[in-house]
Design brief:
mainly alpha, 8 helices, 52% helix, disordered N terminus
């Protein structure tokens, strides 16, 4: 990508290009796509996010160092573009999870399986949102209603379930791609399994592949 001018710039470029590994960038992109396409919140990718944050910090320091050293502006701009891409992927992944937390916070909070998928900061965020919302509704609306209608999550005391809590629609069709060489999916309305080769794309119910996402299946 650059000619060797004798000042070590080519070696510096080679070192820089390894700071955000191609593998981690692709993994982060895949995690973002899976999270964006899935109707429910998926497992937080803690090791991947930690590595991405560390690599982004190192990239920021390197870009700043190269700018101060007077390196060719065009070369620095290429490094900056790589840094911007990494930041975009990480922010997009975290943002789509935040949107789900805000929309389904009560549902996630009461579901032990979904709750275990959150990071510690996400759990703190959900708990704080619930506390703030319940306090706000109690002070502004619920306290002025009859006793039978003062629940945040139920229409009335006779409701047997939390019928005012939004839930993700798991009975929805999504596009998925086989990650491994061979994947067999058992469909509810068919006696024959759906067989997929690597990179094959199919349109199936989310419930059919929800336990395979990130392992055998990626969403598209």
């Amino acid at each position: 990508m650059a000619e060797d001018t004798g000042d070590g710039s080519t070696a510096e470029m080679d070192d820089y290009e390894t700071l955000m590994s191609t593998t981690d960038a692709e993994l982060l992109k895949t995690a973002w796509r899976n999270e964006k396409a899935a109707p429910e919140i998926l497992q937080f990718q803690a090791p991947l996010v930690k590595r991405a944050k560390e690599q982004i910090q190192l990239m920021e320091e390197t870009v700043e160092e190269y700018e101060e050293s007077g390196m060719d502006p065009l070369t620095v701009s290429l490094y900056q573009m790589d840094l911007d891409r990494a930041q975009f992927l990480l922010r997009s992944y975290l943002r789509v999870r935040l949107q789900k937390l805000e929309k389904y916070m009560f549902y996630i909070w009461k579901n032990e399986s979904l709750w275990s998928r959150l990071s510690d900061p996400e759990k703190m965020f959900v708990q704080r949102c619930i506390d703030d919302m319940e306090k706000h509704l109690e002070e502004t609306v619920l306290s002025k209603l009859p006793d039978n209608y003062q629940s945040v999550r139920r229409q009335s005391v006779i409701s047997e379930e939390d019928d005012m809590v939004p839930e993700p629609q798991l009975d929805t069709f999504i596009a998925c791609k086989a990650r491994n060489r061979f994947v067999s999916l058992r469909l509810a309305d068919s006696e024959r399994p759906l067989e997929m080769e690597r990179h094959d794309v199919s349109f199936v119910l989310y419930k059919v592949i929800e336990d395979k996402i990130g392992a055998d299946i990626d969403l598209v």
